[in-house]
Amino acid sequence: MTLSAAVALTATVAFAQNLDAGKPPEKLFADGCATCHRSPRGLAKGRFSLTLSWFLKDHYATSSDSAKALAAYLVSVDAPPPRAAAKPGAKSSRSAPRPPKPATSQ
Predict the structure, then answer these.
(1) H-helix or E-strand containing 76?
(2) What is the mean pLDDT of residues 14-25?
């Protein structure tokens, strides 16, 4: 009986596979991170891709490859959002300087 249990256990381990293999990083984020994080923006917090991939591998990713891909993705979207171009005729956020008041004599 122990022989059949050992064979069954070995067969189960042999067929284990990484379900995240080959997924694009956007899909990895959507499947594993979006539950808690609405957006990938800002999650890298200026970290290097290598240290971020180590962190993800230790805590969240199923393999080194998926951790590296996810880290590279997070670093790529970590840049600040581009500034919106001002529309023609739109007011500037800064007000124009006012001319000085005319001097009045009494």
Answers:
(1) helix 64-76
(2) 75
3-state secondary structure of 11: helix
Could you give the CA distance from residue 3 to residue 9 in angstroms, rounded to a whole number? 10
Phi, psi values for residue 52, rounded to 5°: -65, -40
pLDDT for 76: 92
Integer CA distances (angstroms), 99 to 89, 90, 96, in order: 22, 21, 9
The residues, ordered by sequence, that sit 6+ positions from 29 with a Cβ below 8 Å of its Cβ are 37, 40, 70, 73, 74
User: Three-state DSSP class for 61?
Assistant: coil
What whole-number percentage of the chain has pLDDT above 70?
66
